[in-house]
Amino acid sequence: MTNPVLEAIRTRRMVRALTDAPIPREQVEVILQAVRWAPSAGNRRLHRYVAVQDSTTLRLLRMVSPGMFQRPRAVITICIDGARARSFGMSPTTRSLYVDVGTSAQTMLLAAHSIGLGAGVVTSFSRAAVSVVLNLPVGFSPEMFICLGFPAARQPPAMRPRTPVTWQSLSHWERFP
Amino acid sequence: MDSPLVLTEDEALELLAFLVTAARTQLDEAAEYGPLRLLTAAGRLADFMAGRASPATRQFLAGPLRALPDAALRSVDPGKYATELDAVCQAVAEHLVNHFGGGAR
């Protein structure tokens, strides 16, 4: 019997080409509900998520995001709440803040994949400009976009690894040889 | 002969925003993203221009400029990437000579 979680992990891809079909708000909410359960260091919940479906705001985000090749129908921005982090005595560069950007991202990517949406991450954007477009409170730092839409039939070629990758080539037992 | 306007204000602003923000993101990113960003900007400019440019420029935009090398190639095969970029640069120059009428000495 196929393990659906492992199957979702194995079959998820970064989706770079999306159709023009709008995403029902309920599907975006499913992803936001999923990320509520993402691992968070110390269960401190120092991240906030801004979901955008408005076409003008999406256009503006794309204008200030050189790494956004796709034209998403929704974007969820993962933000670090710097003020809240400081309230726990953490500096803005504390590693766990960025680790949890990753756990949020993977949780949303898998959630999107599980409901038939295509998703891709973008980090090449001007944080200063995005903060203005999204009217983020002072202290909030936008760190990653999850770009959402329905996958187009044709996708750009995947970026191939320079050498073949297997789980064995990435892993070591007990200690490095 | 007057040169036709090929960009709207909205399109020009979009391109300007891309270029300025790309300058900032490039400070934190891999060096190989530099040419990628410039080529993305060129591609977007070509898309904007295509509907209003002269027939010859439109033909050029639909031809060699569409053959921009794939971003992934830069790290996999730098030599091939440079060769393909050279080919596009050559096509750009040939169109410039035809468009502006230079080079026929």
Task: Offer a concise description of the structure.
The complex is a heterodimer of chains A (177) and B (105). Chain A is built from 7 helices and 4 strands, in the order ααβαβααβαβα.
List the keywords.
heterodimer, A: 177 residues, alpha+beta, NADH Oxidase, 4-stranded antiparallel beta sheet, B: 105 residues, mainly alpha, 5 helices, flat
Written description of the protein model:
The complex is a heterodimer of chains A (177) and B (105). Chain A is of the alpha+beta class and 177 residues long. Chain A has a single domain (4-170), classed as 3-Layer(aba) Sandwich (NADH Oxidase), CATH 3.40.109.10. Chain A has helices at residues 4-11, 25-35, 55-63, 82-87, 95-114, 127-133, 167-170, and strands at residues 47-52, 74-81, 118-122, 140-149. In chain B, helix 1 runs antiparallel to helix 2. Chain B has one domain (9-100). With 105 residues, chain B is mainly α. Chain B is flat and about 40 Å long. Chain B has five helices and no strands. Chain B starts with 8 loop residues before the first helix and ends in a 5-residue tail after the last helix. The mean pLDDT of chain B is 87. In chain B, 10% of the residues are buried. The A-B interface holds A 63-67, 69, 124-126, 128-129, 157, 159-160, 162 and B 13-14, 17-18, 20-22, 24-25, 29, 33, 37, 40, 70-72, 75-76.
Sequence-ordered SSE layout with sheet pairings:
The complex is a heterodimer of chains A (177) and B (105).
Chain A: H1 4-11, H2 25-35, E1 47-52, H3 55-63, E2 74-81, H4 82-87, H5 95-114, E3 118-122, H6 127-133, E4 140-149, H7 167-170
Antiparallel strand pairs in A: 1-2, 2-4, 3-4
Helix pairs in contact in A: 2-5
Chain B: H1 9-26, H2 33-49, H3 55-62, H4 73-76, H5 78-100
